[in-house]
Amino acid sequence: MVKFIIIFIVLNLYxxxxxxxxxxxxxKIKITNNFSFDFIQNIDxxxxxxxxVIKYSKKIFCEYNDSxxxxxxxxxxxxxxxxxxxxxxxxxxxxxxxxxxxxNKDYLISQINILEPRDINNKxxxxxxxxxxxxxxxxFDKKSFNLAGxxxxxxxxNLVITFISSVKINQEIDDDIFILPKNN
Length: 184
Known about the structure:
Layout: H1 2-31, E1 34-43, E2 46-55, E3 59-64, E4 70-75, E5 78-83, E6 89-93, H2 99-102, H3 105-114, E7 118-120, E8 124-131, E9 134-141, E10 147-153, E11 159-169
Antiparallel strand pairs: 1-2, 1-11, 2-3, 3-4, 4-5, 5-6, 7-8, 8-9, 9-10, 10-11
Helix pairs in contact: 1-3
């Protein structure tokens, strides 16, 4: 009986620690209107670096530090990937990409509320989101409760792992960066 009580207490403490962490993550998301960060993205072993700005209401602007000077922009409806050197670009419906989930603040909050996180190396909390054909693993830092990265599949079904750092929340940003680029 004593073992049962000890196990019950330990499980309760473990559960309340996750509950508290979830509440802190949700609180952080609620107060966040936008955030910028540096990233390292690994697509099937190929690493790319750059920086991004996310503005909730499904907007993102990323500049890659690669030889093509690639940019990724969403105005909340469409997603454009443009090679600045050549001027070539591809346009996709945001709804057809996993970023639709990541860029939707209300959706994130509702899912984190109902999901149980996985503890990753006592450093990150991971939530796995599924919606229609989109799947995204999101990771939050256990100390700061900031978004730490995500894992998805791109439209070509390549595994894409994005690590983020140097997160800055609610900075003044120019909304013009979210205007979709035109073909040169």
